[in-house]
Structures are given as structure tokens and as C-alpha cells.
Task: structure prediction
Amino acid sequence: MDDLGVVIRMAEKKDLDDLLRLCSQFRDDPIPEKTSKLIKTWKEILSASYYHVFVAQKDQTIVSSLVLLIIPNLTHGQRPYAVIENVITDKDFRNHGIASALLSAARERAKEQNCYKIMLMTGSKTDSTLRFYEKAGYNRNDKTAFIQWLE
Result:
């Protein structure tokens, strides 16, 4: 446990309910039903070597999470790169440094995997959120991201 009162670790099978609860805050969607498809997807996520779900746990409850993907690469001396997505912190635990601690843990994992860069994707246009990511060391000037939504 760190000075924030949270334990940062990799997600485990037992964390699914807490993660689904967090995801429901992500886009104000209802908590999804635990169908066989959802369970199969969760098992795939946990078994994929390139897929890392970091969680911050406080008092036996997951209060924040993020996804780090390590992607093999043919350029940059065949060093992989990393992508961070789905940074979510429970609304009652925001602005306490928990997401910053998760981003730091993800950065360390990317360095351990010899990644040459981390790209962070956010759908937020909120200025405070964008400043938060800039304060964490990310910039919005080096690359341009384009999204094409598939139906």
C-alpha cells in the first residue's frame, strides 16, 4: 500500500465486477450483464501477454484502472510501443493522485518491456483532463490521432 492508501496491481479474475462497475462510470452506461461473451472476453484479456489491466485497490475495492497494450513493432530497432486506453477513476476518488500513480506504474511496465514510446488515447475534450495528461508527461503535439468508428 502506498501513501495514497491504495494498492496498485495487475487485474485478476476476481476483479471483473469492480471493473464493470468502473466502466459504467466511463460513459454512464449501465453495468453490462455477465453473459458468456463477456466472460470469454475477460478470460482472453487476462491471458493475453500484450494486454495489461492495471488497477488501484482501496479497502478491497477497485477505485481506478487503465489498460496498457504492448505492441510488437518492426521499426525503431524492433522495439515495441505502448498504448494506454480506458483510464477510469471512480467519481468518489478523483483528484487524489490515484490515476497518476496508475500512469506511473504503466510507464514503468512499458520501460521494462523496452518500449520506445507510450501513446495515450482519450475521448475527453475537457480541459482539466487534457491538462492532467500533460502534467503526467504526455503531449498532444507530436502526433495526430484519427478515429474511424466501425459499426
About this structure: The first helix runs from residue 16 to 26. The beta strands are 7-10, 51-58, 61-71, 81-89, 118-120. The helical segments are 16-26, 36-47, 98-112, 127-135. The mean pLDDT is 93.
